[in-house]
Amino acid sequence: MQLYTYDGTFEGLLTLLFEAYERKVWPTNIEAEQTAQPALFGQTIAVVTDNDKAARVWKGLQQRLSATALKQLYHTYLWEQPGFEMVIYQFIKLAFDSNENIEGNYTAPCVLQVQQAAKQVHREKHRMEAFVRFQQTTDGLYYAHISPDFNVLPLIVSHFTKRYADQRWAVYDSNRQYGIYYDLSTTRFITFDAAPRKGRGELPAHAKTTAEDAYQKLWQVYFDNVNIPERKNPKLHQRHIPKRYWKYLSEKQPRLLQ
Amino acid sequence: MNERVIEKLSILADAAKYDVSCSSSGGKRKNHNKGLGNAEGMGICHSYTEDGRCVSLLKILLTNHCIFDCAYCVTRKSNDIKRAAFTVQEVVDLTINFYRRNYIEGLFLSSGIFSNADYTMERLVRVAKKLRQEHKFNGYIHLKTIPGASEELIKEAGLYADRLSVNIELPSEKSLIALAPEKNYSEILLPMNNIKEQLVQAKEEKKLFKSAKDFAPAGQSTQLIVGASSENDQQILQLSNDLYKNYSLKRVYYSGYVPISTDNRLPIISEPPIIRENRIYQADWLMRFYGFDVKEILDEHNPNLDLDIDPKLSWALRNRHFFPVELNTADYEMILRVPGIGVKSAKKIVSARRFASLNYEHLKQMGVVLKRAKYFITCNHKSLQPYDFDSQRIRNKILFGDGAVRSPLLTQQLDLFRQVG
Ligand code: SF4
């Protein structure tokens, strides 16, 4: 048993790879130091993040992998599911140990796993781009509140920055307690001193413009009228919008009365 | 809130819902002016109707007043319904405010014919122009062209719209004459051809000058109603095939006829032909992405699609002599034709077999539906299917499994309704 710990960052994980190669001691388990349990057998190697080492590993990967594969590897990091570090480690090790590009080698479990994790993350990213709903505050900010399954905020920055170049907006991840904020020139990561509540993130009445309620109502009216009752198909409907996403959607909330 | 706008929206969204297209993909419009919106890349479905269709665009009629009387249409002149009309500004405001809240990708604007074709078309164009010029809107705009509108107006529409559509609705001239007496095929095909020529011209100019104007960069589409008239599936798919080839259409949409009218020129049905519509979409898919020729899918002996099984399986069962396919050596094109193997798994197979000889466990991992595929493949010349069943037997096994229970695979097939643009 060989446990490695790191600080939970992507750079930390790459540093870990570097050190494993240097020591020729291969991990059987990798954990973030914040959550690591002391190992029962064998010792623990605690890696200290070193940006130079991380950069060297990344550079090596750039020579061996396509941009798509690098992106998928980063997505696997944002996936955050138990064991993701080992999957990344196995993938990188296979990439360094093989003479040819390993990307299409779906006979290797880690290649398939990276591909599948990346797919899940990509899907959640896409869903957040689709199902995020902004509410306009009295000071003109468009605000949205989300709690995605995976850590996708870094991935949706570019989409919303391109789309809403002429309005101030913010998206806040209430699970991971940080957000992204665009101030009409750049988009930055932000945290709040008092973390906003979880849940739908409906703005309090005094913080909302009157137009906000009006447009939420109009959207409900629209949604209710595009439906063709003769074709009703609740199963298909839920397959497209699983219930856990309904909390974001104003069309899925009780009807606003006049 | 203006009560009147709420009422208009409910009437004019309801009247527009039978146009099934809601795609916002294929656009190339970037947010180039620090304005609002971006329509490059794939479209996004921001919601789904309770019948499972993608909601991507604010899809409304400008007005449901109409001087025509097409039998299959709720908006027809003789129908006794509430009428309403938006102003240009109202449509612009709704679009902008929905877009800012991330409800939509853009606008799909159509209309009944108010007063005359050009009068109506001119207003549709004005909405698009205002959005682009006054509001620096770079979201997606789909405009329906009004039958009989002048070439100049259609040309202008293409300057602001991402997509234009001319709906054929009825799959043959005979049905058109019977059900929409004020319309005729040549009047429908003429603007379609105009748009096609404009598209070609704009593309060539773009090659020469970077600054050349865009013309409907997401191309044109049309819609056919299925089940309101007597055409068989072969006639419908043949027409689509011609439209894709001769008019370079991006998409043909199919809309299962929803019984909305008791007009005696229309068939009496109690519910829309959803399964048939779904099979036609699958066949359309085979023509566009799987390399099938329309004549392979249907012919004189088989003029209609099998409602119980999908058209790819149906083709495979009629063409057993092409099978089994050895997955370690077969061409990509042939692998794609195996029931239970889609585009993604086919690509994975071709890529992975360079590294190792594939076995059935690999295939399962890559997403191949072996329950279906096993009758049509070998892997290292091994088959999972020791008996040489005849086509009828395979069909029954896939449909009903080994017991008598209806296969969940089939149900899955039925509600699979694809929306990719
Ligand atoms: S012209 Fe269009 S809106 Fe008018 S009745 Fe015919 S199909 Fe309906």
In brief:
Chain A is α/β, with parallel strands linked by helices and 258 residues long. In chain A, 43% of the residues lie in helices and 12% in strands.
Care to describe what's here?
The complex is a heterodimer of chains A (258) and B (421). Chain A is an alpha/beta fold and 258 residues long. Chain A has eight helices and eight strands, in the order βαββααααββαβββαα. Chain A folds into two domains: 3-125, no CATH class; 131-252, no CATH class. Chain A has helices at residues 10-23, 51-64, 67-79, 84-97, 109-131, 153-163, 210-225, 234-240, and strands at 3-6, 29-32, 44-46, 135-136, 142-146, 169-173, 178-182, 187-190. Chain A has a five-stranded mixed beta sheet, with helices on one face. A three-stranded parallel beta sheet of chain A has the order 2-1-3, covered by helices on one side. In chain A, α4 (84-97) crosses α5 and α5 packs across α6. The mean pLDDT of chain A is 91. Chain B has two domains: 3-225, TIM Barrel; 319-408, no CATH class. A six-stranded parallel beta sheet of chain B has the order 5-6-7-8-9-10. Chain B has a two-stranded antiparallel ribbon with strand order 1-2. In chain B, α2 links the parallel β5 and β6. The longest helix of chain B has 24 residues, at 185-208. Chain B is globular and about 70 Å long. The model of chain B is unreliable at 409-421 (pLDDT under 50). Chains A and B meet through α5, β4, α7 and α8 of A and α1, β3, β4, α2 and α12 of B. The structure holds iron/sulfur cluster. Iron/sulfur cluster is lined by residues 66, 68, 70, 73, 75-76, 112-113, 180 of chain B.
Number of helices of chain A: 8
Number of domains of chain B: 2
- Estimate the mean pLDDT confidence of chain B: 89
Label the structural class of chain B.
Answer: alpha/beta
What's the quaternary structure here? heterodimer
- How helix-rich are the residues of chain A, as a percent range? 40-55%
Element order, helices and strands of chain A? Answer: EHEEHHHHEEHEEEHH
Query: What's the CATH topology label of the largest domain in chain B?
Result: TIM Barrel
Termini separation of chain A: 65 Å
Q: In this structure, how is the largest beta sheet of chain B organized? A: 6 strands, parallel
Which ligands accompany this protein? iron/sulfur cluster
